[in-house]
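Minutes, project huddle
Topic: does the predicted pose make sense with 6-O-phosphono-beta-D-fructofuranose bound?
PN asked that the exact inputs be recorded in the minutes so nobody has to dig through chat later. Recorded below.
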Amino acid sequence: PKKIGILTAGGDCPGLNAAIRGVGKTAIVEYGMEVYGFNAGYLGLIENDYIKLSESQLSGILTEGGTILGTSREKPYKMVKKGKTKNPEKPKKIKKTYEKLGLDCVVCIGGNGTMKTANMLAQEGINVIGIPKTIDNDVWGTDVTFGFDSAVQVATEAVDRLHTTANSHQRVMIIEVMGHHAGWLALYSGLAGGGDIILIPEVPYNIRSVCKKIEKRYENKKPYSIVVVAEGIDHPKGKSAAAHIGEAIHTYTEIETRETVLGYVQRGGSPTPMDRILATQYGSYAAQCIADGCFGTMVAMNKNELTTIPLSEVGGNLRLVDEEHPLIVKARRMGVSFGDEYL
Ligand code: F6P
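Predicted holo structure (tokens), as shared on screen:
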């Protein structure tokens, strides 16, 4: 039988176990393959640290958050000296593990960094298939990553809950959600939660414009405001984006502000039904791709159709929010501010 490995790498997110289960069960039940799970991402491949997964070990994990395999931010191709030498030892060890076990393919579940590494392994002759995951929804080449919907749900609930307390105290509430480079989570939770101002890294904001919007709301007898910010918006180091925006708003408007940094609750807990289904589909399709010998690719969703994209086109690229994204255009027309209207 064919032997396959599975690993989960990078920051975790809800749906990883659903994806592992999707790959593993399809591989075992449909194709009679042997399945090995590598512990802690690429570290498991480097250190030959794995467990054989049976069908029963893959049962009962669909709804669990996190990953039964563990994860790490290990980058086997990281330069030893910045911009200079690569350490050849780790890729060599990976090759040794792959050959010793007699693997036919490794399924790498992760975000952009994971896909970049998977592509490098593919170029060294290792059969790999990528599955895109991240709460940031910023993997190039796919319309959606699993983990995103679950994070949107958590962040939206938080925004919802801020409305009542903001109203009671007539305050400006600033809530910071994750997203270093991409504003998808802030955009979606901001819209779903009825945020008044949404600040994302892709749309440069001006604090005067943000304050003007808040003051206008005041004049219109709306004495409180909700500002949803992505962690990656322009702000000074050593302070959170939310703290920076809150202090600036208070300074200019003298209105009371309060900040909430949502943090890791966004990455924890059980996946939403949509994420369970997406991760299951990606996993099952990846097993089919192995059977078809479609290596060096990442499974992806393109206009609601499962497809594959060469890993060489994915690695290193980020899928950011377009400033003219239809959601932004529509939100602006409804009076939602992106912090750049009154320049
Ligand atoms: O999973 C992506 C992400 O959530 C980013 O938005 C965030 O900045 C980063 O991970 C932080 O993760 P960690 O602290 O695990 O490196």
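Observations noted during the meeting:
- The radius of gyration is 22 Å.
- The chain has a mean pLDDT of 96.
No decisions taken; revisit at the next huddle.
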